[in-house]
Amino acid sequence: MSTAQPTVPDGMRADVELAQRGRSEMQFLQAMRAGLRPLQARLRERLEKEAALEEAAGDIARLREAADEVLAEDPRLGIAGAALRWNRAVLTPRAVDAFEERADELAPKAAPPAPEKIADRGEEAVPRYWRYEFHGTAGGWDGHEHMGFIHHELVYRYLLVPSFPGDIFGQRTRVAELAPRDTYTDICDLGCGTGQFTLKLAQAYPEARVTGVDLSLAELRYAQRRAAEAGTEWDLVRAPAEDTGLDGESFDLVASFILLHEMPPHAIRKVFAEAFRLLRPGGDLVFSDVAPYRLRSPYQAWYDDWDAENGHEPWWRTAATIDLVEVARTAGFTDIRQEALGQQSYPWVTVARKPMEGLA
Ligand SMILES: C[S@@+](CC[C@H](N)C(=O)[O-])C[C@H]1O[C@@H](n2cnc3c(N)ncnc32)[C@H](O)[C@@H]1O
């Protein structure tokens, strides 16, 4: 198993060193993921040879049943699933331990600049589904005071960057640049997390006032830090993306990056309606999320769904099957188009416009 230090691309701080124990634990988890790939490749060969998936293509429930039938006697599926679930479940706790080992040094690198400037709609505004322990992480998005740093410096650096296909930071830049106009004055990033995509928006449209909305205080604190380190300042708001409490018609671009697959379908519809409310007439929406199953091969669709289930992603299937064109149209948008920007149809971007008054 390789324990080479992964390369850290643009968009990440590169000065985070862990104590040897923490680093080797993170590298073990990363190497374990790589070690599972040959097992998954054998499963893929078997499924594709049997052609069972072709007959069920287009219907994810039938695809799952067909694969279960083919692999019913194959212990490799259970082993791969158990290994994946274990890996995901311990990933953040191990990153928290690694952080704690050097907390004296790392906490100052993780803390937001003083004074902390985050408007907060309070606990009552938090929807119940957000409390789910996404990715199996104990405590969910806010499970540690410095979860923003832990997730985005340690988990991203040691686990996501090495195991994810494509350039996960460059993808955010490309989505930001896909917005139809050359300039914007007021941009809102829904589900901004620690501000990885927010930063790309701010860089693509340097004249704009930028607002980030998220439900995780820990992530928002790190977003404030990221903005300060980039020499800028964003308005940060802790609120649900589907009910931000921000003034209507106060933005000309509302965007999001990998927010929708964290939400149940009724919330996705509300987010589009909220984006419509927030936009001025003629304003643009740019939402990017996971690839629809219909654009994937039967094997890939099966794998995405199986992986999401074993990776504690309860709403992935919804995001991969919902018709976002219909959702956008129902919310009132026009000029709706969709585009796959990278390999394997990801990022999958929906672009739409709020009509000028009288033209709807
Ligand atoms: C996968 S992260 C993406 C963060 C960021 N957009 C990026 O590009 O790195 C998803 C974020 O959505 C936030 N989130 C999930 N449901 C939300 C909701 N209903 N309202 C606001 N934020 C939400 C989570 O707290 C998390 O920070």
What does this structure look like?
GO terms for molecular function: methyltransferase activity. InterPro entries: Methyltransf_25, Methyltransf_Superfamily, SAM-dependent_MTases_sf. It is a single chain. This protein has 360 residues and is an alpha/beta fold. It has two domains: 130 residues, no CATH class; 184 residues, Vaccinia Virus protein VP39 (Rossmann fold, 3-Layer(aba) Sandwich). It has an eight-stranded mixed beta sheet, sandwiched between helices. Helix 9 links the parallel strand 3 and strand 4. Helix 1 packs across helix 6, helix 4 packs across helix 6 and helix 10 packs across helix 13. Bound molecules: S-adenosylmethionine (SAM).
Please sum up the structure shown.
The chain has 360 residues and is α/β, with parallel strands linked by helices. 47% of the residues lie in helices and 14% in strands. It folds into 2 domains: 20-117 and 131-162, no CATH class; 170-353, 3-Layer(aba) Sandwich (Rossmann fold).
Q: Given the helix and strand composition, which structural class is it? A: alpha/beta
Percentage of residues assigned to helices: 40-55%
For the report, how would you describe the main beta sheet?
Answer: 8 strands, mixed
Multimerization state: single chain
Secondary-structure arrangement, i.e. CATH architecture of the largest domain: 3-Layer(aba) Sandwich
The CATH topology of the largest domain is Rossmann fold
DSSP strand tally: 8
Q: Any idea of the CATH class of the largest domain?
A: Alpha Beta
How many separate domains make up the residues? 2
Strand proportion: 5-15%
CATH-defined superfamily of the largest domain: Vaccinia Virus protein VP39
Reading the helices and strands in chain order gives HHHHHEHHEHEHEEHEHHHEE
**Can you tell me the overall shape?**
globular
Task: Report the radius of gyration as a whole number of Å.
Answer: 21 Å
Bound molecules: S-adenosylmethionine
